[in-house]
Amino acid sequence: MGKEYIGYIGSYTKKESQGVYRFILDTEDKKLKNVEVAAPLDNPTYLTISNDNRYVYAVSKEEDKGGITAFEVTDSEGSLKKLNSEATDGSAPCHVSVKNDNSLIVTANYHTKQVEAHVTNQDGTIQAAKSVEHEGNGPHERQEKPHLHYAGFTPDQQFVVVVDLGSDTITTYRPEADKLEKISVLNTKSGSGPRHLAFHPNGKYAYVMTELSNEVIVLKYNEADGSFEELQYITTLPEDFKENSQGSAIHLSSDGKFVYAGNRGHNSIAVYRVADDFTVEFIEWTDTEGDWPRDFVLDPTEQFIVASNQESGTLVLFERDPDKGTLSLIQKDVKAPEAVCLKFLHA
What is the spatial distance between Cα 177 and Cα 154, in angstroms, rounded to a whole number? Predict the structure, then answer.
């Protein structure tokens, strides 16, 4: 028997989107359905879900301020009830992560150069942020200043890793209550523009998607001091592709055997096999059947991958071969306006 899983969509609200959307993946009929507004919100481009599925935290904009909004998941249908929001002057963050015990939330801000930490209360509400500002730049025209694009916790929950597209850095912080203490910085290839990072399930390696150079960087992670060491750079695009393309999301299968990386412009998901030494070998490109695939997500069974095409405003459903890692198209053109980020409730 198949099962239905609830997912959420973070979106831009520049055109017709109204905020956070909810959808259902039916694994028996192998289809996406019931895409509907879950919570009206201004520009909730990225969201995250607490480990116990009780809370959803979304980045948000409030007039000339930006921050995050907390929601409670109130029923088995995935309905959302707003709890509170915290915002500061400037643009909204572009990424948010929550600690496994739900005690701390971190956000990365592309525009304000800041990583922010919010302590959470026992009822899921969030406190005002404490921030750290980055410095630096790079050779690319879009690297005139820091542009933080990812902030997340290490698998052991001891550190926070911040990926900065603007200064080509990956910085490790130690969270002390709501303060972040810098402990390590890795400089990536000049002009690469690192964007998002995903850890291997063994917690000893990490994979970074670069936005500007369109590459996957393989890193070895030192759990003792939070530092990283570069092992490999590999392109995410065909050699003969010369048009504009920008790297987007990166995710791994939970068995650690496959890495998936999104290309906006080439409009594809690049699939890689993880070798014995944890470097990657290219397998194939899969067309996302739409324009500007900003994100994608493996469902809780990992039998499927759902991709979001931001510019064409669509979701696409692929079935995943667990042995080969390859993707097969099942369903396309599912309307989801200005879709950016995809997350499922945890199984």
Answer: 16
Q: What share of the chain is helix, strand, coil (3-state, %, to 5)?
A: 0, 55, 45
What phi, psi does 42 have (nearest 5°)? -90, 120
Give 188's DSSP letter: -
Q: What is the mean pLDDT of residues 332-344?
A: 98
pLDDT band at 1 (very low <50, low <70, confident <90, very high): low
Is residue 48 within 8 A of residue 328, CB to CB? The reply is no
Cα 166 to the center of its chain, rounded Å: 17
pLDDT in tens, 210-243: 999 999 999 999 999 999 999 999 999 999 999 9
| End-to-end Cα, the chain, rounded Å | 16
Neighbours of 226 (CB within 10 A): 20
Q: Is the pTM of this model over 0.90?
A: yes
Torsion angle, alpha carbons of 27, 28, 32, 35, to 10? -100
Return the HEC string of 39-92: EECCCCCCEEECCCCCEEEEEEEECCEEEEEEEEECCCCCCEEEEEEEEEECCC
